[in-house]
Design brief:
The chain is mainly alpha-helical. 83% of the residues lie in helices and 0% in strands.
Length: 319
């Protein structure tokens, strides 16, 4: 009986710690995104509208803006709004969205570096800057506060996941992700629910750090996450004009094609084994690097065919 109580208490404590860590992590991501968006929204709208005539420049602008704002969903929603208002052409929007997908890989890369030891100092600096009476300092302070909370939350999730991952039912679920299609579906579903690829990537990295999930299983979830992130833009396109709906279709097709290519590559070639060998010393960096490669390769393949995707989207959503 005492043994059962011990197990139950361990599970509850780990679950509470995981929920607390997830709360800190979500708070961190939200603060980072909102703090930059508050001071940059109008500037980014102007930047997008002026320098996106060339599709390669448009993709670059999408990358830069998303790397700063730390949210491809936020940038894509802005693009959809500009499309709906007639301030941008669909070909421009498609290129910006592709660049934004590459830019969103910056957050998981920062998390993979794992600056946990500096988190308290980063949080302190953020609080100090937030207390100053200047909007720019407040925005940077809020971003730093979120940045520090992000690492504390990841550490809590990782620490709490270790004992839970030893439970048979949890182990069976994590083992089920070895099925590529279940792994992809898990990535799609979880990212669609939390509406943030950064959050789902952070959870994957935390679980991998705890040894609860293998790189191979995580890889297929990464492919699914890129599809799941389209849900936010789908919601944003409700009650918009057809041009905005076409942009959502292009966003979905981009990620679907990329996920299909990488899933097939992982199943029929030793791609994942080679990739794992290259980054053998750092499992978090391994997952982050795969996410980066996925989006860079997908953009490199599909950006030259931007006009083809636009025509196909126009056929699906006819005028």
């Amino acid at each position: 009986m005492a043994g059962v109580n011990f197990v139950v208490n361990m599970i509850l404590e780990s679950l509470f710690n995981m929920l607390g860590g997830l709360g800190l992590f979500l708070f961190g991501v939200r603060e980072m995104t909102q703090s930059f968006a508050r001071v940059s929204n109008s500037l980014f709208r102007e930047m997008i509208s002026k320098v996106t005539c060339n599709k390669y420049m448009a993709a670059f602008v999408g990358f830069v803006i998303t790397a700063i704002v730390q949210s491809s969903s936020a940038v894509t929603v802005i693009v959809i709004g500009m499309l709906d208002a007639g301030l941008m052409e669909l070909t421009q929007a498609a290129a910006v969205i592709m660049g934004a997908n590459v830019g969103t890989t910056v957050t998981p890369l920062i998390m993979a570096i794992n600056l946990l030891g500096f988190a308290p100092l980063i949080i302190f600096g953020g609080v100090v800057l937030e207390s100053l009476n200047w909007d720019a300092f407040k925005a940077v302070g809020s971003a730093l506060l979120g940045f520090g909370m992000l690492f504390l939350g990841m550490n809590m999730i990782s620490s709490a996941a270790r004992p839970i991952s030893t439970l048979p039912v949890v182990g069976e679920f994590l083992m089920s992700l070895s099925n590529p299609f279940i792994g992809v579906l898990f990535g799609v579903t979880f990212t669609a629910v939390v509406q943030s690829s950064s959050v789902s990537m952070g959870l994957l990295e935390a679980l991998s750090l705890a040894g609860a999930i293998s790189f191979r299983n995580a890889a297929f979830a990464v492919y699914g996450q890129n599809i799941g992130t389209c849900v936010t833009t789908l919601i944003a396109s409700f009650e918009t004009k057809k041009s905005a709906k076409r942009a959502v279709i292009i966003h979905f097709l981009f990620n679907l094609i990329g996920a299909t290519v990488f899933t097939c590559l992982s199943l029929i070639t030793p791609f994942l084994q080679v990739f794992e060998a290259v980054f053998a010393q750092n499992v978090m960096l391994k997952i982050s690097a795969l996410h980066i490669l996925f989006n860079i390769v997908s953009t490199a393949i599909l950006l030259p065919f931007n006009d083809v995707l636009v025509k196909f989207a126009c056929k699906l959503v006819s005028a």
